[in-house]
Amino acid sequence: MCGAVVGLALGVAMAGCASAPTDAAPTAPAPPVPPAVTTVTSNSVPSADWQMIGTSVQGRPIRMRSLGHGPRHVLFIGGIHGDESEGAYTTEQLPDAFSQNDLGDAVTLTILEDANPDGRAAGTRGNANGVDVNRNFPASNFDAGNPVNGSTPLSQPEAVAVVAAIDRTTPNLIIVAHAWAGKQFINFDGPAREIAERFSATSGLKVEASNEFAPTPGSLGSYAGRGRGIPLLTIEVLKGSDPKQVWDKIRPALIEAMRG
Known about the structure:
Elements lengths: L38 E2 L10 E5 L5 E7 L4 E6 L10 H13 L6 E6 L4 H6 L34 H13 L3 E8 L4 E5 L3 H11 L2 E4 L10 H8 L4 E7 L4 H17 L1
Parallel strand pairs: 1-3, 4-5, 4-6, 6-9, 7-8
Antiparallel strand pairs: 2-3, 3-5, 7-9
Helix pairs in contact: 1-6, 4-6
């Protein structure tokens, strides 16, 4: 479950989900310096235009690509908890929707495909070290006492890659795909309440602030939203729901949020 990029941060960056402690092997080496990301302005975005921003604990690529050339930068993260794959279809459909809605002149959208590919492959919330990537960011509320968070902030290469994507794209908005068991809602961190309320009106998802429903120490929302002041939206869809139905439900709200 969940709680919380070259310039479009579908800042809906999802704050994170509460989780039970598990044994974790902490530190992993930081990934190598990634290559520059190619910006794609045409309607077609071939797979070759994915660029590595880092690698996972087990060496899987963490990839992102950029579309458009507008002044508004949005970063969309397709997932951060490996057992929440409901956003994968949305991530696949987003480039075509971006082009079909002629957003390229107004927006630069960066899509970070999956921030935890090892967890996705294993179907686990955490990464291959057993660490919750969405608790490993250098937020002021980082909790070093819980091993599931990692020994120190950014001890996990996946968290390092996400921060690198944020630094590289300097997004005006971050949007993160998550899933929650038993309910669905739009969650926000930082100066994103107005964006979240518009997203709610369009999608029908209830608005909840991260700090209103669960503690989120070291989450992306705590770090980027509250710490760095970047509007961040976390889309919490119903865990186990049909990914295509998820896309149909949130698509208009996503387009509106990206447009600003």
